[in-house]
Amino acid sequence: MLRVLKTLASIAVTMLGLLLVTFVIGRVMPIDPVLSIVGESATKATYDAARASMGLDKPIVVQFLIYIWDVIHGDFGYSLLTARPVAEDIARVFPATLELATLGTMIGVLLGVPLGVVAAVRRGSWIDQIARIVALVGYSMPIFWLGMMGLLVFYGTLGWVAGPGRVGIFYVDIVPPVTGMILIDSILARNWEVLQNAISHIILPASLLGYYSMAYISRMTRSFMLEQLSSEYITTARVKGLPERTVIWRHAFGNIKVQLITVIALSYANLLEGSVLTEIIFSWPGIGSYITNALLSADMNAVLGGTVVVGLVFVLLNILSDLLYQFFDPRAA
Amino acid sequence: MTDLASQTQKTGLRAWLMTDTPTSRRQARLAAIYHGWLTFRGNPLAMVGLGILLFLVFVAAFAPVLAPHDPLAQDLAGRLQPLGSPGHILGTDSLGRDILSRLIYGSRITLYIVTLVALIAPIAGLLVGTVAGYIGGFIDTVLMRITDIFLAFPRLVLALAFVAALGAGIDNAILAISLTAWPPYARIARAETLTIRGSDYISAVRLQGAGPFRIITRHIWPLCISSLIVRVTLDMAGVILAAAGLGFLGLGAQPPSPEWGAMISEGRKFILDFWWVAAMPGLAIFTVSLAFNLLGDGLRDVLDPKSGSS
After folding, report:
1. What ipTM, to 2 d.p.?
2. Which residue from B180, B181, B152, B159 is spatially nearest to A311, judged by alpha carbons?
3. Chain B contact for A156 (CB, 8 A cutoff)
4. What is the pTM of this model?
5. Which of A5, A96, A146, B98 could anchor a disulfide with A286, C-beta 3.0 to 4.6 Å?
6. Tens digits of residue pLDDT in B90-105
7. Where would I find the H helices in B42-98?
8. Is A292 on the interface with B (CB under 8 A)?
9. Cβ of A234 under 8 Å from any chain B Cβ?
10. Total domain count for chain A?
11. Boundaries of domain holding A178
């Protein structure tokens, strides 16, 4: 019980700090939010009235409390760009990011975990070298550049995949949005043509994110496995005459599962964020594109709202990974 | 004759460095550095990384001599020339500017960003971490809470928001990257401080009357440096990528500055027909951040033997 309270308190403090940071960012911004509404030629009276109606004449602490109150109630203000509530915009774009990041993480886990395990078991072999190069390249390559090159090769030259966007222009708004994730929506609507088109659009950006996720996951898996494989209980298991497969997958891998969950949760959180640049390249209408477009037109409500939501998801995923760790590892309790 | 003389002198120097019984503090310190260098030299990949970075510094220093053209000179008649065209080995961009020359001058911007972030972020982290670790108690709790909050934030998005507030530009981009980069250094410095704080020699120094300021600056900082250097080197790849990302989004260096990320962004419009305009700066970014990763791996083996050479 105490632990639950402690966790909740820690979430609350972190979120409060996050809001404080975005609040400060919103306040130090050089653009006068009042002026951008009333215009340059407004009289002093109009200006003051607008300022009062926005609550900007109140003490800064009160403004911060009002801001927290609003955010708790899901009110991030209106977006200048879309003239809709920011919360509504984010609810509309977030599923697209979620879909992309989830698929990317799945690719990363399915390829990265086996690669890491094999690299650790055959340490120093050619497959270990390949795993090392894959990771190094992943850590060093600008993701937006790799995305552009991917588009150039697989879309422009080979024509294997569809270009930017979520679906082709003829398939837009055909399936009713239930979850907002086009793959799931088209399956629900049993519209296989849309599904095929959507897959052809998502496969390249998802593989790209998957590659970055794989680079990280395979490295972490490798070092976790190496640690286990050098333990004495592994030697014992081998001396007992257990088959090598059992030793590796049941004994060693069984012990790193908990650590892996944490790594995967972190990598998932990173992909949600890392998709910002990817979304730009692939014209993917997710939260990354939303924040960036808002940024370029100085739409501060949208930028800060998006930042808070991404931060919140980030914090929650971190906490989730902590909780899973405690759940699966009795020692951490 | 002179050859022989220089050779004996060299072996003399080597022997002096390799001795097991150093006679002075300076000799011991130089010997430690020399041993580290020998280990480092045994790692070919790390040497490749070091070589690339030295080359980068060389190119940046002699940019006006090396660049065949003015990086800003436009030539609309000769725009979008392909690779290997006469006078423009790497072709020209949409305004007819020589891509090679722009890459060469762009190396200065990259070095500028990397150097400043490598100074600001670790020093800020070192200050926060050592103070929190040494003083402890309430201050430690508060400082580490702040660190956690910054760590909890997604870095690129936070940098984006900072730049949005401060205004686009290279110095603001550096500031934004530094603001998102310091928390891990604070964590490392604090962890190091906690292990050092209780040791006997710190008690001895304290008994001699040294105050917290002197203990932190003279006795704790020097011991945190090596783990920070490793972390900085490994982080620099990320810093270069972040700076390029901000430049790509139009929030870093502003045109016509030949910043590599901004160059990719300019080439994006022509990617399907004139791919080299975007491809070349991307290769430059990749090479430099790869070099930092290789160098960081090598340095980790030398300076931080605890983590093992995996």
Report:
1. 0.83
2. B152
3. yes
4. 0.85
5. A96
6. 888 888 888 899 999 9
7. 44-61, 63-66
8. yes
9. no
10. 2
11. 86-332
